[in-house]
């Protein structure tokens, strides 16, 4: 998202991604909200619905 923000000139996105990168280094092993897109315009703590197609691709086939 950082690179996409940079390439599209969305400097609000770039500024929002920098703290997320540092937070991810610290907290991603502890907790990550399910389905969160990672955009800076969405709360980093907000879980979001995962569409059906990715759910089937990520399903555990045991």
SSE inventory with pairings:
Elements lengths: L1 H7 L2 H17 L24 H7 L4
Helix pairs in contact: 1-2
Fraction of residues in H or I helices: 40-55%
Structural class: mainly alpha
* Cα end-to-end separation: 33 Å
The SSE string, one letter per element, is HHH
Task: Quickly list its features.
62 residues; 0% strand; mainly alpha
Walk me through what this model shows:
- The protein has one domain.
- Helix 1 packs antiparallel against helix 2.
- Helices cover 50% and strands 0% of the residues.
- The longest helix is centred in the N-terminal third of the chain and has 17 residues.
- The radius of gyration is 14 Å and the shape is globular.
- It has 62 residues and is mostly helical.
How do you describe this structure in short?
By secondary structure, the protein is mainly alpha-helical.
């Amino acid at each position: 998202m950082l690179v996409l923000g940079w390439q599209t000139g969305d400097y609000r996105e770039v500024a929002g991604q920098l703290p997320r990168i540092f937070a991810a280094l610290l907290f991603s092993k502890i907790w990550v909200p399910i389905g969160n897109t990672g955009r800076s315009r969405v709360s980093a703590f907000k879980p979001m619905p995962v569409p059906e197609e990715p759910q089937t691709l990520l399903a555990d086939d045991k």
